[in-house]
Specification:
- The structure holds 2 protein chains of 2 kinds.
- By secondary structure, chain A is mainly alpha-helical.
- Helix content of chain A is about 70%, strand content about 5%.
- Chain A folds into 3 domains: about 100 residues, no CATH class; about 110 residues, no CATH class; about 210 residues, no CATH class.
- Chain B starts with a helix and ends in a 14-residue tail after the last helix.
- Chain B is an all-alpha fold.
- Chain B has one domain.
- Classes of the chains: A mainly alpha, B mainly alpha.
- At the A-B interface, helix 14, helix 19 and helix 21 of A face helix 6, helix 7, helix 12 and helix 14 of B.
Amino acid sequence: MRFASRYIAGIFSFAIAAFALGGVSLADQSRLNNATALFAAGSYADTIAAIDEIGVSGVDHAPAILNALSKRRVYLNKTTKFTVYRQGSVYHDFLTSKQLDGKPEGAKSVRVNNRVRSAIKAALGTLELRAKDPATRISAATEVFNRKDVAVLSALEKLIASETVPAVKKMFLDTRAALVLAKGDAAKSDKLAAIAVMKARAKQDAMVALEVAATDTDPEVADAATTAMKSIENWLAVAANFQNIWYGLSLGSVLLLAAIGLAITFGVMGVINMAHGEMVMLGAYTTFVVQELFRAYAPGAFDLSLLIAIPLAFAVAGLVGIAIERGIIRFLYGRPLETLLATWGVSLVLQQAVRTIFGPTNREVGAPSYMSGGFEFLGLAITYNRLWIIIFALVVFASLLLILRYTSLGLQMRAVTQNRRMAASMGIRTGYVDAMTFGLGSGVAGIAGVALSQIDNVSPNLGQSYIVDSFMVVVFGGVGSLWGTLVSAMTLGVVNKFLEPWAGAVLAKILILILLILFIQNRPRGMFALKGRAIEA
Amino acid sequence: MITRHLSSLSDTGSRVFLGVLLAGALYVSVCNLLLPETHALHVPTHVVALLGKYLCYAILAVALDLVWGYCGILSLGHAAFFGLGGYAMGMYLMRQIGDRGVYANPHLPDFMVFLNWKELPWFWHGFDFFPFALLMVVLVPGVLALGFGWLAFRSRVTGVYLSIITQAMTYALLLAFFRNEMGFGGNNGLTDFKDILGFDIQANSTRVALFVITVAALALTYTVARIMVTSTYGKVLVAIRDAESRTRFLGYRVENYKLLAFVISACMAGIAGALYVPQVGIINPSEFQPANSIEAVIWVAVGGRGTLTGAALGAVTINFLKTTFTSGFLAPYWLFVLGGTFILSTLFLPKGIVGTASTLWHRKRSEAAPAGEVAPTPQAAE
């Protein structure tokens, strides 16, 4: 009886629709007509069946219908079977998506419950497999992969044939393999092929997909699946190490940025600058101010803000550094412990000054578009901001090396470092060189602040959190050696990241500190210590 | 023997210092306990606690001056020894709470119940027993200083390198004590103490008693440090400070001299911490902050490096300023004042208040008596 009523309703609405227009292809149209009939039948089960019909219909307005349905915005006149859906305040014809003047008379909304809503979600999933944007197609396929939505399998087969984008096609093939394994009733050769695909995928989700196949009744399939799982496991272990190294290098480059300015002031000049962290903080706040100006006056050019902030941060921190050197430090040369105390005082004053001007709370520093997002490389998740910071740190390092090696200021700096009195006798203005060196070190710290503002909170305490780490890096690497600083920053970063999964983040840091304290006992002057008379100076 | 040692206290500075301490202890205790609250000279209990806190800092400053002023070891980790002593005392006070905690658990402190622990960790055993806790107050910082100093001095880590690794030490302890799994109350530390040796910790009389004990501890610390620095041993310490290599070549075991001073200084800092906790009523990991250690160094620098009395004076002065500033509308400017003190005192007052005053005093005396009976004060080198 019920079947008959559906059948009749179907034919009836089909007739109306075919009469109304002939533009949409007949196959699609009949699906929508079936859906109307099912809506009219009225039970939740019928509605779910209708949703499936809409999902496979392939009409352009199918997502609009399904979204409307989930909000109870599909309306049906039970006697005429005339169905509409509403988007915002506009009513559209269900079959043709044509705009209507108003709500037709006697139309009541189709009822929806949670079961229906989840069916809508699933249907939208397959719809997205057909989306225009390749990224949406990939994420939809991933969704299907993870849910093992075997109902999609037949639709997917067709899509694979018509797919042209290689990345999407690969994801579709992977998904098909996962579905074949999940379904379990495929032919042996199909299963073996699917296992091979999963093995090549070599990810955690492939392991999950293979687990079913590993318990297959056919021993050959089960064996193949077990072998594939082992090989994926091995690969994942290797990949985890690569991931750790990557994170370690990323942390190391942050340490390098924070410490490299210190390597100049402490390493080359022998001055303990406890206000070094505050130079980093000044750089970060310069970035904040530049970005605020961009937001206010040139929001379109926001991506350029960091490029502008880099030289400005260098200038601000460098000038403050020169002021500190001329105003305080030059009176304290040869008294390193006093310098330490005086610069600590400077750091307190700077912190409080920034707190008074900008307030004690964190400031929002935005990321330009080229620094957000990321990509995947050999199973490693690589984010653009980390990648840029690594590149940036290396560029800063290289330019410092070049400045020290090839400029006349660099030459004078090295001369003053090695023998101050001899350099003075040769006509080098040691006071000027001191100020410039200190300005350079502070300016580099300011640049580091621009980079750190992208990954850390910009607050008055920003510098404090880096000061102990920076000193550790410089001392570990060997005072006066830029290369030592590079090696030590990267080593500390990588060791830290390898300890973290095993010991937890805080304990890893404690272990690093203890290891460093013990290391300094053995090599009190760091890994790359200066040799000869210079060390006694 | 004893008379010879006591003779090291016969200089003007020591007499004035110990005299002021004695007078202060008498004045505060009498005026708090015997005078009615309405009396003009009455010292309120919160002032007694505050003074007690200052004096604990003074003990820490004297301890630091012993190693920095006389031996040239700039320790940026003395807050660690202070904190460890404080935790040892805090653990005893926690055990005294018994079943009066929020969870009324007779066997475990509140925070352990909160963390669902079933048993007392092994390192908490024994802290019910006061003498054991007292022993730990001295022993734990002492052993840490012994191990750390032995490693550092033996491999001749000196100057700023030593400063930086002591800072790393206290930083590591800070991170460690923040962890709940360590079993020291994590972030919140130890607090909510009820009584000490059966006396209510909030009572006036207990407060005054703690204050008097702190005064006595400061006097004792000062005496020990003074005896050390005026003895032959102290002369060698100063020699190490001024010319370490030369002292070594003269045949002295430099590392042993340094180690002894460092360990004794750490024990003193531990005692200061232990007296600090019952008077302040809380100990938490923030005591280990590297900034605290550096602040202690500035007390010594302002008061006068290598003068002991100056260290104590500096600690009390700076902390008095801090209380005055941070309690009023001037609070946001406190860091300007503190930072400015760091800068100005190193630039213009390298000998500190007491050092400068005594230089002026000696100059005046030598002008009055040009015969030159006063030996010139030796210049302290780095």
